[in-house]
Amino acid sequence: MPVSASQTANADSPATSASQSLRDRRIASRRPLVPPELLREELPIDSSAAATVVRGRTDAAQIVSGVDDRLLAVVGPCSVHDEDAAFEYATRLAPLAAELADEVCVVMRVYFEKPRTTLGWKGLINDPGLDGSYRVNEGLRTARSLLLDIVSLGLPVGCEFLDPITPQFIDDVVSWGSIGARTAHSQVHRQLSSGLSMPIGIKNAPDGNVQAAVDAVRASAASHVFTGVGDDGLAAIFTTSGNPDCHVVLRGSSAGPNYDAATVADTARRLTEAGHPRGVLIDASHGNSGKDHRKQPVVVGDLAARVAAGERAIAGVMLESFLVEGRQDLVFGQRQALTRGQSITDACVDWASTEKLLRQLAEAVRARKASTTP
Ligand SMILES: O=C[C@H](O)[C@H](O)COP(=O)(O)O
Ligand SMILES: C=C(OP(=O)(O)O)C(=O)O
């Protein structure tokens, strides 16, 4: 009897069993992922929170393009590992952000995904239990819920996007995004930025290569076609229209800082020549402080003096800041031993310093405005 094409593809066919024995040789397990649409339905964004998201996006885009002469400040913990402590931080930051709003647009850094140099805890979405239990659906739910709570305070939030599927679960709540140093060269992340709905800050590469970030801004501004996961959780082919609001974040490198006036001006020139917004953000942490949180105030002090003196290409600052200064090591499975409000990834300045540094930046903007007001 003749055999139809569908019959030849059945599970018992020699071709299928050959394929099965060749595939998934290194997949240890597979679990279902909640569809993005379902999570958004379970944890919806209301109209007042949506207005905060839009305000943050518009402000960030206008500051980076120079239409708005304030500074953008992306401020918060290196990573969120305890949502209650992160929310307490947000309750302190929100009134300060409102008070300084004429000079500084404050966006809270709420990072759930950590790119690791080698190995380590990869963030709250990947492992919300901090114990290697990898309850990813719970991580996504906790992340979305925290973002909604923070935005409901009237405070816009910023996240790093690392996994290309994760944005589907949270991007409607995010006003500013980042592509990190380790992924600035990555085509996958440039494609992702081209379709994201908010301004994206792209870091210079870990070795200090700024052109990698400038190239990423250029690639992200273009349209791309690529595969991803849709609202229903099914794979799909996406065509993006390109993101005109991407910009460079200078974060220093293993060779030292790169927030000096010459590097900022050179980066702004490269961006302008390529037809992109010229505003540059400076990350006061990472390579610019040698990961020593006590040096972040030195970076901010230098930037504030330059802003006050009229330097225009500095569009904003990133601070790694939490309730308690410094950092601590996480021992997997022993979260109860952690000091509340202290980072388990990179070291942060504490709340008192954060408040001082934001006021210093606001003062610098007031001086810059005064010197340019006719
Ligand atoms: O911002 C956080 C860290 O610098 C980044 O995730 C790399 O961390 P690691 O070098 O400790 O892995
Ligand atoms: C990982 C980060 O920074 P970078 O990509 O600059 O190392 C970060 O800002 O959390």
From TrEMBL:
Record's keyword annotation contains Phosphoprotein: no
Top-level taxonomic group: Bacteria
Pathway: Metabolic intermediate biosynthesis; chorismate biosynthesis; chorismate from D-erythrose 4-phosphate and phosphoenolpyruvate: step 1/7
Substrates-to-products reaction catalysed: D-erythrose 4-phosphate + phosphoenolpyruvate + H2O = 7-phospho-2-dehydro-3-deoxy-D-arabino-heptonate + phosphate
Pfam families: DAHP_synth_1
Domain DAHP synthetase I/KDSA: 61-358
Compositional bias ranges of the Polar residues kind: 1-21
Keywords: Amino-acid biosynthesis, Aromatic amino acid biosynthesis, Transferase
GO annotation (BP), single: amino acid biosynthetic process
Span list, region Disordered: 1-27
Enzyme Commission number: 2.5.1.54
Function text: Stereospecific condensation of phosphoenolpyruvate (PEP) and D-erythrose-4-phosphate (E4P) giving rise to 3-deoxy-D-arabino-heptulosonate-7-phosphate (DAHP).
Gene Ontology molecular function: 3-deoxy-7-phosphoheptulonate synthase activity
Protein name, as recorded: Phospho-2-dehydro-3-deoxyheptonate aldolase
InterPro entries: Aldolase_TIM, DAHP1/KDSA, DAHP_synth_1
SUPFAM superfamilies per UniProt: Aldolase
Native source species: Tamaricihabitans halophyticus
Family: Belongs to the class-I DAHP synthase family.
Gene Ontology CC terms, in alphabetical order: cytoplasm
Uppermost EC category: transferase
